[in-house]
Design goal:
Largest sheet: 8 strands, mixed
Radius of gyration: 21 Å
Bound molecules: iron/sulfur cluster
């Protein structure tokens, strides 16, 4: 069994220069008249997951954040870069090595209904997870423990139900319990609350936070909702068009964002305190436009076609991570902050 007594802050999983390019299908290649076109879904992503901490990966649809989670779960082979589990480079492709990896790194998907088989009971789903990962010695006690951990109590009320007999929030709790059946060290939660009613999202986030603390889990929280990242995550990383553009502790990134794209995300979040009459029409115009094609991403900074602060060099030079102010660990990949102090 994986120890929950490992020191909090211990590095579990790292992405180093992680890159994923999907080959474009032949028909699209003909349209674009190029033989070697690829979708640049993820380029040069670096992140570290530590015991007892949540890292939020924030961005709009198509930014590549879910691809990062699937790469870390080894559901996709990577094009370049490295994935390190406790410092050891790891590449698994199925079979026993994949099961051993999945026992330590589990994924929670966005849609709990799709991730549970409708013809099987909750007992079946949890038993299967426990057996696959060799944790079914005392099956009844283990089933009760899993459901109790996710606050589905009394467990007897849920064990023999089918997924359609549960609410969305209860189904997501079952999906989390199933992931815990592997006794993992890291959870990769891909938009775990975005398909749930607003009224029950907070309960599921609180559950994940509680599990993080009690089981000393490392959690990657994928979301398009930067406000929930502030509430839930220790660190926040922002992705745009397949690249990381800003990172730091969640309070700093959400309260004093540096990158123009992060500012746009925060300004786009619903804010009941902001009256329409207060909105400057020029401000309202910021960030107009669509996310770029990832088959032919913009040169230089990928945000430059939408950026209200773009400078000539932005369309030619790829920004590097630059330290922001004196806040340790706060960086942005933006030429507005160019100085000799380049973040390592
Ligand atoms: Fe805008 Fe240039 Fe910064 Fe990119 S590098 S976000 S285009 S100012």
């Amino acid at each position: 069994m994986t120890s929950t007594k490992a020191p909090s802050g211990e590095v579990v999983l790292e992405a180093v220069g992680l890159t994923k390019h999907f080959p474009v299908r032949r028909r699209l290649r003909q349209i674009f008249r190029k033989e070697h076109e690829a979708v640049h879904a993820v380029d040069d992503v670096n992140l570290t997951l530590r015991r007892g901490q949540v890292v939020a990966l924030v961005g709009e649809s198509g930014s590549g954040k879910s691809t990062v989670a699937r790469l870390l779960a080894q559901l996709y082979p990577r094009t370049d870069g490295d994935i390190r589990l406790h410092g050891v480079s790891t590449r698994v492709k199925g079979g026993r090595p994949f099961r051993e990896y999945a026992a330590r790194v589990q994924m929670i998907f966005q849609d709990p209904f799709a991730s549970l088989n409708p013809v099987h009971t909750i007992r079946y789903h949890l038993t299967r997870a426990l057996k696959i990962h060799g944790n079914a010695e005392n099956l009844d006690a283990a089933l009760h423990d899993l459901l109790t951990r996710v606050s589905l109590t009394p467990p007897e009320r849920y064990l023999d139900k089918f997924p359609h007999e549960l609410s969305g929030g209860q189904r997501q709790r079952v999906a989390i319990a199933r992931a815990l059946g592997a006794r993992p060290e890291a959870l990769l939660a891909d938009e775990p609350v975005s398909m749930l009613d607003v009224s029950i999202r907070l309960g599921v986030l609180n559950l994940l936070r509680d599990l993080k603390e009690r089981l000393n889990l490392a959690i990657l929280y994928i979301t398009h909702d930067i406000a929930s990242a502030r509430y839930f995550a220790d660190q926040t990383l922002v992705m745009y068009a397949g690249r990381m553009v800003e990172g730091g502790d969640s309070e700093t990134v959400t309260q004093t964002p540096a990158h123009p794209y992060t500012k746009l995300l925060i300004d786009s979040a619903p804010d009941p305190d902001r009256l329409i009459a207060d909105i400057d029409p020029l401000e309202e115009d910021r960030g107009n436009g669509e996310p770029p094609s990832l088959i032919r991403p913009p040169s230089g900074c990928r945000f430059h076609p939408r950026c209200p602060s773009a400078m000539p060099r932005c369309s030619t030079d790829l920004p590097v991570p630059l330290q922001i102010g004196d806040t340790p660990g706060h960086w942005a990949a933006c030429w507005l902050y160019d100085s000799p102090e380049v973040a390592s």
